[in-house]
Amino acid sequence: MKQFFITLAAVVTALALIFVALPIGLIAWVVAASKPTVPNAVVLSLDLRQKMTDQSQNSPLSFITGSGLSTLDVVTTLHHAADDAKVKGVFIRLPEGGMSPSAAEEIRNAIIYVRRANKPVIAHSQGLYPDTMVVASYMLGASSGNLWMQPHSSFQVTGISTSTMFLKRAFDKYGIKAEYEQRYEFKNAVNPYLYSDYTPAHREATLGWMGSIYKSMIGYVAADRRTDAGKLQTTLEAGPYAAEQALKLGLVDKLGQVQEAEDAALKGAGDGAKIMDISDYERTISPSYSGDVIAVIDGEGAIVTGRADSGNSLTSRNSNMVSDEIAGAFYKAAKDKSVKAIVFRVSSPGGSDTASDQISQAMQAAKAAGKPVVVSMGEYAASGGYWVSAGASSIVANPSTLTGSIGVFGGKFAIGDALSRFGIDSHDISVGGDYSQAFSQSQNFSPTQRAAISNWIDEIYNGFVTHVAAGRKLPEATVREIAKGRVWTGEQALGLKLVDKLGGFYDAVDVAKGLAKIDSKADFRLVNYGTQTGLFGATRDSVHAGISALKALSFLGWAMSDPKAEAVMSQISDQRLREQGATILAPEPYQPSVR
To answer: Active site annotated at which positions (predicted)?
Structure first.
């Protein structure tokens, strides 16, 4: 048996080399071989027509599968390109519909940074059509200073609209009961299940953030096109227009096909210039290894408890803000003596209160270790997204970031009556108190269950308010007045002291440098402190498991050299065979020694 385990250990070691070490080596070789080179004169091509995330979703297999754009990837790459002598300009394809206004603002700032480096930017549109945030797409195109449109396309930038589908009457018809508690009247996430139309508070809040974003977009376009904001708004709202009319009205700069616009960008870059996709260019950027470290912690998606499961996907990372992962990144950065400050990028609609609190406490531990933490808000940082942000040393938000929403809701759908109408009977059975059945979907809340749920929601809400008041150093009464579950834009939040500064990621970096007393002209490094996921994360886990298995096999090999251990293992093996009905030869029984 000893020889068996020695042989097994050798086999496992060989398999580890074949299936772990060899693939890693091959991947490293392929990645290195596939790394593009930058021509001496290049125009970066940025296609914004694809769906974008706020933060990078790249994986180790992105060179094979491709990867979507993220706002931060675009912004950081454009900043690098502005300082690269080989990059002569940028060519942008605009979406025909809308895009995140916060992302548009942040990319606009990066485009202006490129233009200030005397590098021309051309944006091309094949039409701007009705969409909730098409004004954001137009605003981004206007920032180029050279906006082209395809002839005979449509220019339909006349405002912002949104639509909400209310399900209350359908629920009543089919016997579905939405049982929810909200804190308070502006916490309208579940209003479509509870009402048949906008409540006054729901309407007020929605019009409030829409109006704020619209005003910001108009202001940016007016500044970039050097025109009066009021006159521009009047012209836009008198539309829609054909591309030819938009040109006459000064809303765009030139008409032409996509290829003509691209050729113009290449011509402006000089002889021999090549077009290069911004994603390919990004892969050529080498990280800096000099200067003080500013840790960057990414947080995008719903906030949930637990750990990031690196085995879920070979090609992407976790799409949620997982509390163990984010908190762990804070603790790791807090212990790293090279880290002088932390920038926490938040783009989240909210989630679990306990997960949010876990992340918040980890942030406080980092601050206690002498690391200032600056939050950079992306598309939104609402509800739990604001909870995790409130205790930061400073908060930076884009003017159109949806933030605040200091509020709570909780409840369930009771569908027992609906199921019974289709001949399905659902009955509960439980032991314990009445509350044990509170979240059964078979029935409505009982009065005592409703009271318990209400108290629970109150406790969370009051804790949220207290947390924000302490983190933002505001009177609790002030926080209660501006809370009530209301969503604000970053621009509105600045006036309410819910954020400290308007701006994007690099503005947050500048604030972090100031708080850490890093000289504004000194070299510094941005180092991501997230948990490794995707293929490399899965490989890491496989290696760890392989090491553990080899250790166990080594122990067994050693144990098999002891005749006592061998006899015990033989008895265990024989017993398992007996349980399976096998016939064996009985060994000599093991007689324990007395020591």
So the answer is: 187, 383
Cis peptide bond N-terminal to 95, omega within 30 = no
Residues present in the chain in total: 595
Give the Cα separation of 311 and 328 in Å (integer).
18
pLDDT at site 10? 53
Distance CA(296)–CA(342), nearest Å, equals 6
**Catalytic (active-site) positions:** 187, 383
- Decide: 374 and 340 in contact? Cβ < 8 Å: no
Task: Write the CB contacts of 440 (distance below 8 Å, at least 6 apart in sequence).
Answer: 428
**Alpha-carbon gap, residue 301 to 347, rounded angstroms:** 6
The CA distance from 151 to 558, in Å, is: 80
Cis preceding-peptide flag for 220 (omega within 30 of 0): no
pTM (two decimals): 0.82
Site of tokens 């067994």:
556
Element (H, E) at 528: strand 524-528
Rg of the chain on CA atoms, in Å: 30
Residue type, 549: A
Kind and range of the H or E run holding 396 = strand 394-397
pLDDT at 587 over 60: no
Record the tokens describing residue 243, joined without a space.
């591309």
Nearest residue to 2 (alpha-carbon basis) of 492, 485, 554: 554
- Please tell me the class of the 288-404+485-530 domain: alpha beta
φ and ψ at residue 92, rounded to 5 degrees? -120, 135
Under 8 Å between Cβ of 316 and 59? yes
User: Would you give the end-to-end CA distance of the chain in angstroms?
Assistant: 27
CATH node for 37-158+239-283:
3.90.226.10
Residue type, 274: K
Cα(22)–Cα(501) distance, integer angstroms:
49
Helices marked H in 396-533 = 416-420, 447-472, 476-482, 490-495, 505-515
For residue 424, give every residue at least 6 positions away whose Cβ sits within 8 Å of its Cβ, in sequence order, or none: none
Q: Which residues contact 227 (CB under 8 A, 6 or more apart)?
A: 250
Report domain extents, the chain.
Answer: 2-26+537-579, 37-158+239-283, 288-404+485-530
Residue 337, phi then psi, degrees to nearest 5: -70, -20
Q: What digits encode the pLDDT tens for the residues 323-381?
A: 999 999 999 999 999 999 999 999 999 999 999 999 999 999 999 999 999 999 999 99
Among residues 28, 72, 85, the alpha carbon closest in space to that of 528 is found at 72
Query: Measured between alpha carbons, how far is 592 from 565 in angstroms, rounded to an integer?
Result: 11
Task: Count CB neighbours of 267 within 10 A.
Answer: 12
**Given pLDDT bands bounded at 50, 70 and 90, which one contains residue 32?**
very low
Asked if residues 439 and 432 have their Cβ atoms less than 8 Å apart, the reply is: no
The span from the CA of 123 to the CA of 306, in Å, is: 43
| CB neighbour burial string for 1-19, b if at least 16 within 10 angstroms, e if fewer | ebeebbeebeeeeeebeee
- List, for residues 183-221, the tens digit of each pLDDT value: 999 999 999 999 999 999 999 999 999 999 999 999 999
